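Hi V.,

Quick status before I head out on leave. The structure for the redesign project is tokenized and pasted below; the design run finished overnight.
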């Protein structure tokens, strides 16, 4: 009963002061209540606007949707606490009632700020990810959302306790030591988690991109919280941790707006110098007639063992590999047709054998007989 009496006394005192305040400050209370109601209505309108903005973009991939999420996260209890704080301050509430309203407002405003911070953080993350579904980070987004929620509300709890006069030094120290212990125990998991966040924000690749590292290449199928799954060109699924993947030199073949091909070819040595001089122009005309192709250069590069060697460089302006492959096929077929029309023969390896007698006399091919040169001139 001894501990119960002070609480009863405080409650009675609060009730008596409240009744006295209501009777002596009726006009101020009415005006403050009207102002508070207007504020609540305005905040409800802001929340409705946020809900409407979110409805226009269900994937949450635009900045206006991030703002809409923050506005839609406004809670009614925060509106009431704000209105009560304004009414109490304007109407001069008694100390006991003012302290009660202050405590309610501190708790409500801190929790509301935590909700706004949570929605803003998650909105920015999903905006950078381009949507959980399109980015392939659907499973990771759920865990990231949980971690962000825990971190923000833990900070909010410390702020509330500190504003209520509780000594939070020991709590902060305990949370710090516990965080260090958890970080050391799960540093591998956190390394992959931060690597997943790096993939999320830096976007070195996305789901569906064709990437290559070391001797492995394939299409990204899923980006998880700890690992990334890639379907290789031979069909098997390759699983690699996010940290190890980012530590390597990645080649994202899906980001190419053009692909360059160098095609070497050789023509027979019997081709005249005049025709060799015309070959670059012939090739340019053939390549320019193909869609999405850009001719760069063509010319003779050397004298081969059985051919006059040429090199052709072209750019195919496309990001789709199937289109690039088909365009290259079209260029080579067109080039073959033009060479056939011009009578230009492609070279192939040729070997000539010589047969000689034991004394070194040439037997085959047969040496020219005497008079063959004169008859050849006459002919």
């Amino acid at each position: 009963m001894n501990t119960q009496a002070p609480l009863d006394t405080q409650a009675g005192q609060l009730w008596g002061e409240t009744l006295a305040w209501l009777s002596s400050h009726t006009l101020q209370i009415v005006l403050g209540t009207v102002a508070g109601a207007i504020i609540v209505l305005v905040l409800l309108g802001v929340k409705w606007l946020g809900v409407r903005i979110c409805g226009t973009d269900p994937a949450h991939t635009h900045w206006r949707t991030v703002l809409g999420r923050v506005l839609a996260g406004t809670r009614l209890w925060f509106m009431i606490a704000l209105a009560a704080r304004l009414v109490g301050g304007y109407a001069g509430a008694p100390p006991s009632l003012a302290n009660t309203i202050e405590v309610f407002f501190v708790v409500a405003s801190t929790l509301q700020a935590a909700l706004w911070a949570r929605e803003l953080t998650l909105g920015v993350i999903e905006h950078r990810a381009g949507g959980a579904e399109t980015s392939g980070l659907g499973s990771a987004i759920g865990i990231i959302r949980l971690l962000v929620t825990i971190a923000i509300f833990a900070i909010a709890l410390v702020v509330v306790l500190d504003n209520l006069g509780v000594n939070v030094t020991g709590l902060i120290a305990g949370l710090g030591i516990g965080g260090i212990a958890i970080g050391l125990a799960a540093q591998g998991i956190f390394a992959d988690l931060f690597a997943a966040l790096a993939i999320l924000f830096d976007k070195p690749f996305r789901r569906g991109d064709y990437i290559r590292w070391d001797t492995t290449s394939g299409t990204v199928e899923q980006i998880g919280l700890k690992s990334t799954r890639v379907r290789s060109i031979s069909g098997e699924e390759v699983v690699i941790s996010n940290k190890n993947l980012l530590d390597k030199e990645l080649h994202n073949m899906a980001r190419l707006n053009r692909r360059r091909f160098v095609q070497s070819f050789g023509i027979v040595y019997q081709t005249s110098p005049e025709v060799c001089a015309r070959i670059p122009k012939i090739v340019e005309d053939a390549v320019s007639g193909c869609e999405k192709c850009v001719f760069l250069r063509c010319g003779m590069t050397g004298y081969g063992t059985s051919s006059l060697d040429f090199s052709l460089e072209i750019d195919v302006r496309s990001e789709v590999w199937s289109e690039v492959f088909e365009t290259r096929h079209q260029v080579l077929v067109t080039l073959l047709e033009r060479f056939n029309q011009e009578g230009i023969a492609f070279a192939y390896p040729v070997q000539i054998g010589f047969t000689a007698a034991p004394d070194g006399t040439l037997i085959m091919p047969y040496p020219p007989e005497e008079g063959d040169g004169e008859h050849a001139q006459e002919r």
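Above is the designed sequence. The longest helix spans residues 95-129.

G. will cover questions while I'm gone.

Best,
W.
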